[in-house]
Amino acid sequence: MSASVRVYINGRGVDAPASGSPVDAVRAADPAMADAVVAGDRLITDSRGLPIEPGATLYNGAIFRVIANRQRPAAGEDA
Q1: Residue 30, domain member (yes or no)
Q2: CB atoms < 10 A from the CB of 47, how many?
Q3: Does 22 reside within a domain?
Q4: Is residue 56 part of a domain?
Q5: Which of 11, 33, 61, 73 is most buried, by CB atoms within 10 Å?
Q6: How are strands ordered across the β-sheet holding 42-46?
Q7: 77 is a domain residue
Q8: Number of domains present in the structure of the chain
Q9: What pLDDT band is residue 2 in, cutting at 50, 70 and 90?
């Protein structure tokens, strides 16, 4: 098994760790964008625009998009 998989983040091909998560793949493409995902300011979606679990398993050819998180709780509300 290869140590990395080829995935696509916002249309850009990235080699990410085979045992990594979508957040790891985003971090390989753009560390600041990954920080925004971890902070809850952005979401990772699949190629259809459906949100994915940040801990999902990567696979060759996966297509992810990073979008603004419009579902964030208002200040003072619990998530």
Answers
A1: yes
A2: 11
A3: yes
A4: yes
A5: 33
A6: 12-17, 4-9, 63-68, 42-46
A7: no
A8: 1
A9: confident
Tokens of 53: 């679990």
Per-residue pLDDT reduced to its tens digit, 21-74? 999 999 999 999 999 999 999 999 999 999 998 789 999 999 999 999 987 566
Left, alpha or beta for 42 (phi > 0: left; psi -120 to 50: alpha)? beta
Range of the domain at 31: 4-68
The amino acid that residue 66 corresponds to is V
Is the pLDDT confidence value at 78 over 60? no
Round to whole Å and give the CA distance between 28 and 70: 24
pLDDT value, residue 70:
84
Q: 18: domain CATH number?
A: 3.10.20
DSSP annotation of 51 reads B
